Amino acid sequence: MLTLLAKLFHALNSESSTRQIALAITLGFVVGLAPLFTLQNLIILFFVLLVRVHLGAFILAVGFFSGISYLLSAVIVQVGESLLTSESLNSLFTGLYQLSLFKLGHWHHTYTLGALVVGLILAVPLYFIVKTLIVKYRVHIKATFEKFRIVKALKGSRFYRLYLQVSGQGEL
Question: In the list 31, 41, 58, 128, which could disulfide-bond 24, CB 3.0-4.6 Å?
Fold first, then answer.
């Protein structure tokens, strides 16, 4: 887990695109809210492997938001239950339940449907919030830490040069 956290900080400090990191965290949020082995998580995982996102940030976000989902479980179940028991949506869900894909997706379970709906609703604002935070981190916090003497001393050390060579960022 510390390795993933170190890779996330490496991505935040590198020239990686803020969109890639923000998309990875947002998709990790949607996956982390739902139970692990669901159809929507498999589709998102396939999408993550197809497009260019930061995998370390995605895995870290899945782990982090899986823990957060326990705190949000009451809200998630309430959203799913209100959708499944709504009289106006009753005929829709009855028709969808006849489809094998709906059964395979387990969207007839309150938690799974609630996690999908809450995740999709909050995904768009989360993407823009994370993207903004990454930009602010790079401009303000990273620049502030670069000015500290201890950071300058560490970057000038032989150990740091060796780390750059091993990580593939420096010349051998």
Answer: 58
H helices present in 54-141, as ranges: 55-71, 73-84, 90-97, 100-105, 110-136
Number of Cβ within a 10 Å radius of residue 169 = 10
Place of tokens 């890779």: 7
Among the ranges given (11-15, 25-29, 122-126), the one the predictor scored with the smallest mean pLDDT: 11-15
* pLDDT, tens digit (0-9, with 9 covering 90-100), for 87-120: 998 888 888 888 888 878 888 889 999 999 999 9
State whether the Cα torsion 125-141-13-61 is positive or negative: negative
For residue 13, count CB atoms less than 10 angstroms from its CB and return exposed for 0-12, middle for 13-18, buried for 19 or more.
middle
CB 28 within 8 A of CB 59: yes
Phi, then psi, of 159 in degrees rounded to 5: -60, -40
Q: What is the pLDDT of residues 38-62, one digit of tens each?
A: 889 999 999 999 998 888 889 889 9
